[in-house]
Amino acid sequence: MTAAHPSHHGRSIELRGISKRWDKVLALNSVSLTIPAGSFTALLGPSGCGKSTLLRIIAGLEAASEGHVMIGDEDVTRRSPDKRDLSMVFQSYALFPHLNVAENIIFGLKTRKEPRPQRDAKLQAVAELMGLQNLLERKPGELSGGQQQRVALARAVIAERSICLMDEPLSNLDAKLRHEMRVELRALQKKLGFTMVYVTHDQAEAITMADQVVLLNAGEVEQIDAPRALYDEPRTTFAARFIGTPPMSLFEASALGSIGERLEREAGTGLMLGLRPEAVSPSEDGRLAATIVAAEFQGADTMLDCRIGDELITVRASGRSDFAAGNAVSLSFAPEELALFDKASGARLVKSKQLIAAFEP
Amino acid sequence: MKRDWIYALLLLLPAMVLLMGFTHIPAIETVISSFFSTPHGRRPAHFVGLENYRYLLEDDVFIRSCWNNLIYSAITIPASIIIALVMALFVHNRMAGLSFLRMAFFTPTVLPMIAVGNIWLFFYTPSFGLIDQIRGLFGLPAQNWMGSTDTVLYTVLVVAVWKNAGFFMIFYLAALQTIPTQLREAASLEGAGRWTFFRRVTVPLIMPTTLFIMVNAIINSVRLIDHIFIMTQGGPNNASRLLLYHIYEVAFEYWDTAPASAMTVVILAVLSLLAIGQFFWLDRKVHYR
To answer: How far, CA to CA in Å, does A234 sit from each of A4, A47, A55, A227, B230?
Structure first.
């Protein structure tokens, strides 16, 4: 890498009570969160949850109805997008179709009237960084999706802004390319050190790339955590259902028979129980009797849909095992793997000693 | 294989008959008759070579019409394009009363040129017309705009711009709406203001439309003369006489078809050259998606 390669110093972002109303629809309801400087933060949620709106509010493309946006120590709520020290990659890439790759990348530098030698040096460095040296003369229409993506990235990093916002940047790429770009994006962010805010509806993307995942649901923050914590300790049934492929199985306590009754008695409230598919395994001495409803062979694993009581749970078994639909099977799991949720509110309950004791025979 | 060829010919025939009958054959006949004298009663047309063309060069009224048309085109083409673009940019944004404004801008296009001519006749009428009434409010004297050789050409020119701009606006509006809003957002993140975005993104992206409109504007500046019949009939003293109006008069009022044919050929040649030039020269500079 040449000495001229773009260096960034990430800045932190803080949102304080951001709300957004469209006429009568509340798109965001008092969202507060902190994005540490230099971190990779994913805004994750189902479509319509307000994640893109939140990103656009950070960018300044949309004004918040209430609340403040802080970048570093500055309140930028009323500042125009170009004065916020950030760049953005759009889902559609938003490349200028009449300009060639080089012109697209230096569009901003030209607008800000950077002197030519500086501009050329930066272009060279960024083109080298993104592997675009041979494509500089092409028009966006003559590039593949992956190449267009790189140009959009190059345009975002050449300005050496301290924050980079991405709105579902990989959703238009095919699966293989998406995987490659994931690795590359992550490496790029690490190398250049900017703060990344990344919007996605794909939980796998968020889990694999981010330092911190902000899970949004219906305009509200559901959970903010590191990927591992989000997977291991979902704080609501929504988070439990949203994360993981396949997600955590949730079922009513009554499916566990007498254990379930004791759990509910100890907790003093109706319960939803959660188990990750890999936390359950078929075994000879399992205490749960179940019937296999469907078995899906996936190579390394076989996913089993098992019925216990009136509920269905998913079990990840070895791909070597041979289970067939309709067979009876006994399942076992470690008590500490069981997640307990309040049935009414969906909030997770902390497992006390008494609750664990309910498992003892 | 041979049958296919017959089918193709049969399918093309209706369009070909129409095109041939009303466009190609008359055009060729015009070219031919421009080399012959005008037939009179018992004296049939005879070949005169370039005599008709030589005569045009000496015809002061023809030369005057050429100059008039040149001024007329040189102003109506850019003016109607620029006004169309400004109107399109104006009604492209979201605002209250938008559809009413769009309709208002488009109305002149729907009106027949004859009606348009009559409306403007009322505007220009000395003392009573709209323009003089407004001038009267400021204590300015009445003006006979269409009666003066200095101003009459501009009065008919304004009408043409008024009529064309709304039509061209529709094309610009359609072109503007194909520009993704994300381009504007991407540009605004880079600090590009409205003017920079317009100059560096909007203008190049609507270039194909501009080219199309330009070809139409050039043709219209020669072709649309209906309002001359209503408003000035080429007068006073030929000051508002345009080429096509002159041809019409020579051909169908004086029945002097030979020079009229020659003039038509001149117009056709100039228009074809312009159209070809535009497509070949400008095409290379235009970005098509």
So the answer is: 44, 20, 23, 10, 81
Q: Where are the domains of chain B?
A: 54-283
Delimit the CATH 2.40.50.140 region(s) of chain A. Answer: 246-357
> What pLDDT is attached to residue B1?
66
Q: Binning pLDDT at 50, 70 and 90, where does residue B271 land?
A: confident
**Which residue spans of chain A are classified as CATH 3.40.50.300?**
13-234
Is the model's pLDDT at A243 over the cut of 70? yes
Which CATH code is given to the segment(s) B54-283?
Answer: 1.10.3720.10
Chain A partners of B289 at a C-beta cutoff of 8 Å? 97, 141
Q: Distance (Å, rounded) from C-alpha B89 to C-alpha A14?
A: 37
Q: How far apart, in Å, are the Cα atoms of A279 and each of A79, A229, A337, A360?
A: 49, 16, 6, 18
The Cα–Cα gap between B21 and A226 comes to 78
CATH 3.40.30.10 corresponds to the domain A13-234: no
Give the residue on A whose Cα is nearest the Cα of B286: A98
Of B189, B200, B287, the CB nearest to A82: B189
pLDDT at A4 over 50: no
What is the reported pTM? 0.81
CB contact under 8 A, B192 and A96: no
Predicted confidence band of residue A336 (pLDDT cuts 50, 70, 90): confident
**Per-residue confidence (pLDDT) for residue A143, from 0 to 100:** 92
- A47 shares contact with chain B (CB less than 8 Å): no
- Residue B105 · residue B169 · CB < 8 Å: yes
For residue B208, give the chain A residue with the closest CA: A98
Taking an 8 Å cut-off on Cβ atoms, the answer to whether A98 and B205 are in contact is yes
Interface ipTM: 0.81
In the 8-state DSSP scheme, what is residue A255? G
| pLDDT tens column, A156-213 | 989 888 999 999 988 888 888 888 889 988 998 998 889 999 999 999 999 999 999 9
Class of domain A246-357: mainly beta
Query: Which pLDDT belongs to residue B72?
Result: 93
Using CA atoms, how far apart are residues B142 and B126, in angstroms rounded to an integer? 6
